[in-house]
Please model this.
Amino acid sequence: MSEEYFNKEANIFVTIKLAGLRYTVNGEITIPGTKVIYQDKVNILEAIANSGDITITGDRKAVTVIRQFPYGTEMHDIDLTDINAMKSPYFYIQPNDYIYIKPLKQKTWGTGTTGIQSLGTLITLLSLATTTFLLLRN
Model:
């Protein structure tokens, strides 16, 4: 009987759909938003690169992955400058992960986006304070 179904002339087709891995990247990233990568295994570096990389004001030492579990939500910070980040269970992203790139401290303080800009802002403030002091002293 199986010969009737599996002969040379039988037309057997299999349709396979690759659903992809959906995740969201937000914060100090060039192209924020929800992305889909059609691979079965994607690490956080590939996910960030797919979003245009971290901006100059993004903190590579403070990348937060928010992951949903049946029992609730977990948040985990990853330092991408540390080699041990690859050992983290959050290094490979899961479907529907939310990746948040925190800003550098100098951006949150509003003093500049780089160390040189922050130094320039501090020198300007110091110069303003010195000028004001000298003018009020006379």
Q: What stands out?
A: Strands lie at 21-27, 33-37, 58-69, 72-78, 97-103. The chain has a mean pLDDT of 83.
